[in-house]
Amino acid sequence: MELCENGSLKKWIKNRNYVSSTVDKNQSLQIFKQIIEAVKYMHSQQLIHRDLKPANILFTKTMVVKIGDFGLVTQMTREDESKARQRTQGTGTPTYMAPEQKDGSQYENEVDIYALGLILVELLWIFETGSERGIYIRRKFPFVLRM
After folding, report:
1. Most confident of 2-11, 54-63, 104-113, 133-142
2. pTM of the entire predicted model
3. Cα dist. 146→19, 53, 55 in Å?
């Protein structure tokens, strides 16, 4: 297992939001590009992470992105999207779960893409508190916390 000395994206975002009132868009997009490449690789291996969130995205000493916590990873069914098997309901962190993940509908790797969108919001927006982030996400994406 590789040591990720620079902690998680959650910690990085929290520190950035604490010390800055602006977002370095280029830096945030470079980080996001690395995350996308990692998820793209996972999907090419027919895997669905199902718990992508800033706490599971880690940085090495040289700020290379690594994705961790593969405890909920599952295989894609390799079937037509319309025939994707029903998966475990409620698997993942509620804030970052796609609606179909919450309600037990059929899904494949698109649930990871949904989480990526929410992560991008956090990379490009400064929230002073966790509750402010929650309010913003519920207002802009009201379906996020639907149960």
Report:
1. 54-63
2. 0.82
3. 33, 18, 22
Residue 31: which residues within 8 A CB-CB, separation 6 or more?
9, 12, 65, 123
Q: Which of helix, strand or coil describes residue 68? A: coil
Give how far Cα 27 sits from Cα of 12, 112, 114, Å. 12, 22, 21
pLDDT of residue 147: 32
**Using CA atoms, how far apart are residues 57 and 88, in angstroms rounded to an integer?**
23
Q: Which residue numbers are catalytic?
A: 51
- Share of the chain residues as helix, strand and coil, in percent rounded to the nearest 5: 50, 10, 45
